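A reminder from the course coordinator: this example appears on the midterm review sheet, so study it carefully.

Given structure:
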């Protein structure tokens, strides 16, 4: 589910950065269902960061007994962290946050660059497919402003089929 909102492409963002549901109601990750678990990591802004983020995701999903989401979650983490490393300007650490709540797993990557890089046409070169991948894997995704820059998030349905 995506929509165009000026500089940012993604779902509506309400006051305080909460996702705004279809009726304008404010909901948390995964629709605010139940209590959950959260992992927050600060990662260095360099290439080994992607490897560290993927491993932390694998380890966390195993501990949370969400191994059935590993492939999709690791792909999302890899893409979002790679984008932050490659494209975020003037940023220090990159934040990775995994949240499991109800039937959703939320992956969020934060960086210190407040600018959203406009979507590119994949036909124009070898990059530009990242958000096509994110859109195909995630039940929903978006971008929200944070005090230090932006956060790009994606949610996966954690219920077993």
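Designed residues:
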């Amino acid at each position: 589910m995506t929509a165009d909102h000026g500089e940012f492409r993604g779902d509506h963002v309400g006051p305080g950065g909460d996702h705004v549901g279809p009726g304008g109601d404010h909901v948390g990750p995964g629709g605010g269902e139940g209590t959950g678990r959260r992992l927050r990591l600060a990662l260095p802004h360099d290439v080994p960061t992607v490897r560290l983020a993927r491993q932390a995701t694998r380890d966390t999903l195993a501990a949370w007994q969400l191994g059935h989401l590993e492939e999709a979650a690791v792909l999302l983490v890899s893409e979002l962290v790679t984008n932050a490393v490659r494209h975020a300007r003037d940023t220090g650490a990159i934040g990775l946050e995994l949240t499991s709540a109800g039937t959703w797993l939320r992956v969020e990557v934060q960086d210190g660059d407040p600018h959203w890089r406009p979507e590119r046409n994949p036909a124009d070169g070898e990059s530009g497919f990242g958000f096509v991948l994110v859109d195909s894997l995630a039940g929903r995704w978006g971008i929200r402003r944070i005090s230090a820059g932006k956060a790009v998030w994606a949610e996966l349905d954690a219920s077993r089929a």
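The radius of gyration is 15 Å. Residues 70-87 form the longest helix (18 residues).
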